[in-house]
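Protein chain data
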Amino acid sequence: MVERGSYIGEQFLARAAFLRREMQGREAANIWLKGNIASGPQSAPKRLVFLFDTNVLISYCAPWLAGASGERGRTIFPGQWATGPDSEKVRERLGDRHTTLTLKALAEFAMINAPDAGRQWQEQGLDEELAPIRQPTLMFGAHYDESKDIYRGVAAKAQQIVRSLGHEDVIRREAQLATNVMVLLRSEHVAEDAPPSVRALNLVDFLISRQMGRRLRGAAREWDRYVRLSLSTGGVYPASQAKDLLGDHDNLSHAFSVFNGDLSEGELGLREDLVSYWRRMVERQKGRPNDPRLATDAEALADLFLVNKRLQEKGDEARVVLVTGDENLVKATYGGVTLSRASIREPDLRDYLVSQSSPMATDFSLRYVRHLWAYIEDALIGRDALKDSHVADFFNGLLAKGAERTSFSAELTERIALFPKEHQDLIPSLERINVALSDWIDLSTSGTFQSGLNDFAINDEFRQTILDIVLKSDAKLEWSAMLRLIQEQIDQEQDRLTTNLSDTGIAPLVKAGLLGARNPPDLNFASFPITQSIFTKLAHGAYGDAKDFERDFASIKDDCVLPVDRGQIDDRQLSYLKYVVLGAAFASADKWSVALEHAAMARAILDRREAPIPPIPHGREGEKSTKVITGREALFLSATAQRIVAETDADLETARTYLVRAERALGSNPETNPTERFAHKVRFDGERLALGLARYYLERSLTNFQCDDLYDAALTHARVVAKLPMSEHWQGPARDIARVSIAINLVQISAISTFRTFEGWGRPDDAIDIVRHVPEYLQVVKSLVRLPEGLRGPGGSESTGTLTCSNLMTAYYIAGALIARSSGGEVSKQVSTEQLMASFPSMQTSVVTKYDPWRYQRLLEFCNRISLPPYAGNAD
C-alpha cells in the first residue's frame, strides 16, 4: 500500500504540474496577443495559426474510442488513483462516459473556437469583421495522410449504416436527433426539487444518457462529426495547402512554403539537424526506439521550428502552434532547443544556436506546442482565457514552494512534470488526493454538461422548452440568465477545488521554514475572528507545524454564513476568506505571484455578483450582520502583491487602481465604525506611500535620472503618515504591521532625502521634518520586530518585538541608525557602526522586486558612505 500510495502521489503531482505548464503556454500566447494593444493602433495584427495532430481530430470525432493521447479510456485524473471508502464511486464517475464527454468538449473548443481569427482580432482591440476568413483545420502532411486513411475507412463503414454521407443528409440526421430530444424533454423528464442551475445540468445529463443509447453508433456517428467539423471550419487540409487558404498574408505564405519543401540550402542542413535533435528528444521521452511514429514526430517538430523561425525573422506577427493529445510528445519538447543538448553531429543546428539571440529556440515548447488539456479552463469552466483579466489556476498553490518570489516559471512546472520524484515534499497525502479527485469530478462534470447544453439548445423553441422544465416554480428567467446561474455553479465548484489544493501547498512551505519568512500584507478581518487569528499567527511566525495551519484553515467555516438552498450550499463567503488567507500565507513566504493569483480569484467571487446571481449571504434575513464581504481585503492584497511583482509603471498603475477600489469598498459598508474606518484609511495611506516609493525606485533603476517629480510625490505621501507610527491613539496588535511598515517606509524616504542632499539634488534637507524623527521610527521597529541578533545589543535588550524582520527591514533599520548618528542622534549605544554594517543582509537573499538589485546596491553604497567621515557621527 505504501508503494502504491507513493506511486499515486507522484503521478498526481506530475499530472498537476503538466496541466499547469500547459496552461502557462496558453497564458503566454494570450499575453503575446494582448501586447498588440499596448503597441498602439498602428501595430500589425497578430495571429495564431493551429496545426492539429491526428489524435485531436479523433478526440473530437470519436472521443469514445480513444483518450487524448491515443490510449483507450485516458482521462485527466484517472479513477484508479482513488483510495478509501468512496474509491469505487469515484472510479465509476471518472469512467468512460466522463472521459468521452471531457474529450469532446476539449477537442471541440481546440478545433473550432481557438482558431477563430475574429476572436483573436477582437482581443487585440481590432475590428473582428476585418479579420481573415476562418482558419480551416490544418494538419502536418503525415498526420493528414493518416487521418485521410482513417476517415476513408470510417466513411465506408458509415455507408453501410446510412443511405447517404452528404452534408445535407448529415444535417437532416441531426435535425431528427433534435426532434428526439424535444420528445424526451416534453414527455419523459421530471425536474427534481433543486436550484435552477442544478436542474439544468441534471437535465443535460439525462438527455445525454438517453441520446447516447439512441443516436447512431460507431462509424456513422463518427463520420457525422467529421462532416460537422468540416462545415464549421471550412474543411480539413494538409499544411502544404495552407499558404493558399490563409488569406492575403505574404509572411504566412512564405513561412508555410516550408511544408512544400521550399527550403534554402541553409535551411535544408538545419532541418536535417533538427530532425536528428527531435528524434533523440522524443525517443528519450517515449522510450520506444523502434516506434515508426518517431520519424513522423521528429519531422513535424523540425518543420514547426522552421516555419516559426521564418515568421520570427519577419517580425513575429504570427505564430504556428501544434496542438496534440500526446503527453509524451509535448514533454519531449520541454526545455526547447538548446546548445547544451545539441549533438556535435548536428553542426548546422549548433551554429544557428550560437549565432541567434532570439528566445525562440529555448521557448519553443512554451510558444509553439500545446497539449489538448491546455483548454480546460475555456472548454470546461466556461471562462474565456483571452478575455479574463487573470487565468485562474487550480495548481499554483499546490506547487507554490518552487515558485520564484514574483513569478511562476515554466521551467519549474516542466521539471516537476518530468521528475516528480525530485519533489517529494510537494506530494499530497492520499486523503488530499481523494478530496481533489472528488472536487474535480464535480467541476469537470458540470463543465461537460454545460458544454453539452449548447448541443441541445439549438433554437428558441428548444431553449424555451428547457427553461419551462428547469425553472419549474421559480421566477421566470431569460435564457442568458440561466446560463449565468450555471456558470456560477461551476465557478463555485472551481473555488472549492482550488482552495483545497492550495491549502495542500502550505505544508511544504512550513517544512522548508518559508511560511512567515516576512510579514504578510496588513489585512484586517475584524468581523471574522477566526480568520483574523490566522493572519495574526502568520504575522508572528507562529506556524511551525503544518497541521496547526490546516486545523485553523479548516475552522474558517465557523466564521462564515453558509446557507443551504434545496441541498445546495452557498459557500462563496468561505471561498473568499480562504483565498485571501491563502494569499496572505503565500505572501508571507515571499511567493508574491501566487498571492496575487489568489487575490484575483477572491476578487472574482465579488465580480460575479450581478443578477441573477444573488448577493453573498451575510446573516439571517432581516437581521443586522457585520459579516459583509465587500472585497476590500482582496483588493488591498491585490494592490500590495501587484506593487511587488510590478515590472513597469503600468503595472504600478494597476496596483494603484486596486488600492482605489479597496477604498471604495470601505465606503460601501456603512456598518464600519469610525475607529475601524480610520485604521483602514491609515493602511491605505501607508500603501500609497509604498507605491510612491516603488514608482521612484523603478524609474531610478531604469534611467538613473534624479526623478524629482516622483520623489516629491512620495514625500507628499510620507508627510500624510509621518506622525502615525508614534501616535498613542493608533496602537494595538491589529495595528502593529501597519505601524512597522509605515515606519520603515519613512526611514526609506529619509534615506532618499539624505542621499539627495549629499548629491546636491533639489532643496537641501527638504524632508528634515521627517528625517528628524528617524530615531522614533526605529524605536517603533525595535519594540515590535524581532531584530537580527547583531542588531539587538547584549542579551537582546535592544529588541522586544515578535513580528518577523525581513531583510528589507534589516537593511533600512541599519540605514536609519546611521542617518540618526550622522545627525547627532542615537539609536543604540550598544551596537557599533561595524556591527551595523556587518549585519547588512546578503543581496542574493534579499532581492524580491524588479528594482531590488539596484536598490540594495545603492543602499549599501549609501550606508558605507554615511558611516565614514565627514558624515559619520561621534557615537563610536
The longest strand covers residues 318-324. The CA atoms of residues 178 and 456 lie 7 Å apart.
